[in-house]
Amino acid sequence: MNIKICLYFVCFLFFSSLLIAQSDYRITQEFKSRHRSFEIAIEYAKTNDELSKIRKEINEFKNEFKGNKELLNRALYPSNFEASFSTLSKKIEYTNKKLAEISTLQTKVTQVEADYSKLSGELKKLSTEVNSLRNTNTRLMAELKAFKSGYGGSKNAIDSLKNLVGQLKQGISKRDTLIKEIMDNIFMTAEHKVESLDDVEKKGIQTQIKNTSLIDNIRNLINDNLDFLNASLFTSNDLALLREEFKDFDQRWSHFGPKLFDIYSTDPKNQNKLHEIDTLITDWDSTIKMSVWRSIHNIFKNHNINIDEFENGLEFENAIINHIDSEINNETEIEGVKKDQNYVFFAERVWQGIIKNEWMPMLLSENLISSEQVSKIDEKLSDWKDSSSGTKSYFIYAIILILAFIIIGSILLINKRQKTLKNKDVSIEESPSKKNDSEIKSDEEFIDDK
Fold first, then answer.
1. Is 137 domain-assigned?
2. From CA 409, how far away is CA 402, in angstroms rounded?
3. Is there a contact between 187 and 256 (Cβ–Cβ < 8 Å)?
4. Residues 81-114: pLDDT tens digits?
5. Looking at per-residue confidence, does 104 or 268 come out higher?
6. CA atoms of 168 and 147, how far apart (whole Å)
7. According to DSSP H, which parts of 232-334 are helical?
8. Residue 18 lies in domain
9. How many domains are there within the chain?
């Protein structure tokens, strides 16, 4: 009997411990399962509201298993009950931060889309203005060429030509500004290097370039500048402004050109166009220099000074010196007065008054001529002056001698005239006395007769 009771008791203890062990296992597994479900829920939460709801459920979950804390501390070793909920809290904070970043990013995307839409509208407007100016400038260029073919010398014709050149210059300058603005707008969103742009970003820039015909517009702009420079003569101020516009564009191209080459690295057609633009920019620079020399030569021509044409500083120096040598060597064929007049007209009016005062600052600043070359020309002008000073002296001496003869003759003539007037006065004074003497003599003779 006692043995049976003991067996029952042992069996009871065994099954009780077994039930307790199963219960502990079930609690542990349920805790782990629900803990994992909360981790997944936190990871896939899309809004802050979802996170708030999950946080509330986790608090309820914690309270539900709080009575099994000791059991779970043993079962979760090396972790524990509190550490498990700390992990969930950190995951909630991380997801909350990620949702905030996503919200900020969505705001930025919305703003970028709005900016892109606005930019596209601005680019479309700029492109329309560029095309309009292109048509206007083409018409003005045709008028300029037609006008110059029948160009006369009347004041009205000159004023009309100046007005036409001014309109064309203003139109080209405005289109230049618009194209630079298009370049700025297209690349303003690509603040990082073009090399780091992904294919989607490059594709977007290519679309904007295509929609604005940027590459073709740049090429057309440079060609228009070349035609304008070749068709006109300019003042030093005009060319200084055109030179600054070129420098500004060249600097901008140095910045944006490589970006365009990179964007179209796999597009042979546009690569060829970009290489053509590089060549045209070099031509633009040399054409401005040629226009400077051509305009200066036209100054000599308009003042009836026959000088060889020149295309650079060395040729300019040689042409001026050759002309001066020619003038010096012609001293036997030219009268002294005429020779001196030629020197004064060339040296003071043309060279000093126009070339050095108006053009030389730009020539020196652009390194088109050196100060040593200018000094050589000035030295040659001094030789010309010395060669004409002898004939000038003889002329002055002759003038002085003639004036001396005139003065001496005038003095003699005045003295002679004064002497004649004095003699007349004496004669008038003597005539009454003579009359009285004759009367007295007649009276004496009459008394004697008596």
1. yes
2. 11
3. yes
4. 888 888 888 888 888 888 887 777 666 555 544 5
5. 268
6. 13
7. 236-263, 268-302, 313-329
8. 11-104
9. 3
